[in-house]
Amino acid sequence: AQSVTQLGSHVSVSEGALVLLRCNYSSSVPPYLFWYVQYPNQGLQLLLKYTSAATLVKGINGFEAEFKKSETSFHLTKPSAHMSDAAEYFCAVRAQAGTALIFGKGTTLSVSS
Amino acid sequence: GAGVSQSPSNKVTEKGKDVELRCDPISGHTALYWYRQRLGQGLEFLIYFQGNSAPDKSGLPSDRFSAERTGESVSTLTIQRTQQEDSAVYLCASSLDGTRTYEQYFGPGTRLTVT
Fold it and tell me: In this structure, are residues A9 and A89 in contact, taking their beta carbons and an 8 Å threshold?
C-alpha cells in the first residue's frame, strides 16, 4: 500500500526566507512522486515530479525537491520565498500504472513581508 | 489549449436531493479521475476511467455515488440522496493515458454544499 505524510499542516516564513515543506512516503514499489500547488479557489497545478531519473528535481517557480530513498522523503524547497508563493501544497505518490494519486493532507504556506 | 473544465463551480443542495457534477477533460486525454477534497483534508480518490476499460470504482464511498463517462469525453459524477458529509470540493483530473508517466491535470473543482 502507498501513503503520504506531510509534516506540518501550516508553515509560515518571511519573504526571502528558505521554504521547506516536508513529505514522507510509503510505497511497496519504486514510486513516482509529485508536488502540486493549489492557489485559493483554483485547481491543483503540478509543481514538479520525480519519475526515477535524477533524484534532484527542479520545478516551476523556483521550487525543487530531492528524492531520498533511504529516508523515504521528497521534501520541497525554495531558496527565497515570495509573497506569491502563499498557497496550499500537496505531495502525492503514484506507485503503479492505472492507479490514482495518493495525496497527503496538504501544507498551507504563509509568507509575510 | 483548454484545460479541464468542471461545472457547476458551486452547488448548494438540500439534504436528500440528487446532484450531478460534470467534467470536461482535456481533448485527447484517455484517462479521467474524480477526487473529493474535504475541508482540511487531502484529496480522496473516487473513481478512474481509462479509455473503454471498466472503471476503477474502488474509491467510491457508498452506493449513492456513481459516475459515467461517454467514450473519452465528458464525465458526470452523480450523488444520490445527498448527506451533509458529502459537502466537499469535487475535483476532476485527466491525463494523456493511465501510465504513470503522464501527470494529471486538474480542473478548478465543484464546491458542493449540502444543507
Answer: no
The values of phi and psi at residue B87, to 5°, are -60, 125
**Model pLDDT for residues A54-73, shown as the tens digit of each residue:** 899 999 999 999 999 999 99
Please enumerate residues of B whose Cβ is less than 8 A from a Cβ of A: 3-4, 33, 35, 40-45, 48, 50, 56, 59, 91, 93, 98-101, 103-109
Contact A100 B50 (CB under 8 A): no
Name every chain B residue with its beta carbon within 8 A of the beta carbon of A101: 33, 43, 45, 104
Give tens-digit pLDDT for B38-79. 987 888 999 999 888 889 999 999 999 999 998 888 999 999
User: Hey, are the CB atoms on B48 and A100 less than 8 Å from each other?
Assistant: yes
Looking at beta carbons, which residues of chain A come within 8 Å of B104?
A: 46, 101
State chain B's mean pLDDT as an integer: 92
Could you tell me how far CA A85 lies from the centroid of its own chain?
Answer: 13
**Contact in structure between A99 and A92 (CB atoms under 8 Å):** no
